[in-house]
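Let us practice reading a record.
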Amino acid sequence: MLKILVISDNNACRSAMAEGWLSYYGRSAAQVVSAGIKPTNLDLRAAQSMMDAVIDITHHKPKKLDNLLSERFDIVIILDNKLSYLKEKFSKSSRFFIYHFSPPVIDGNDDNATRLAYDSLRDEIENWAFDFVHENIKKLM
């Protein structure tokens, strides 16, 4: 079983969503964990959006990347271009990928627009995760 680490800034939204989708599509072939540089509480809007897609991330506990640096991962995925410098922290035996997903734009005056931003991000990450698993972990079709 492959060990996969997904990294973002806060491990509250993008990486939590990615962990959920990669775990779903990679089940029985991958163990997925996510972490952040400065972890914060789970973004409840992200959790709600994922729940609408029948992926439950409500039990996700954001983790600090520093606490996982001693572990070996087969695949390391960074979800923010500005964190590409982290590649140096991992063994050369890890396959390393960088994909950029912009955080959802929160419109304090328009709940519907905010909801659409989260759902759009969720769908973008799902499509990416399906393709990533299919190309790098196991054939899905």
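A brief commentary: Residues 11 and 82 are 15 Å apart (CA to CA).
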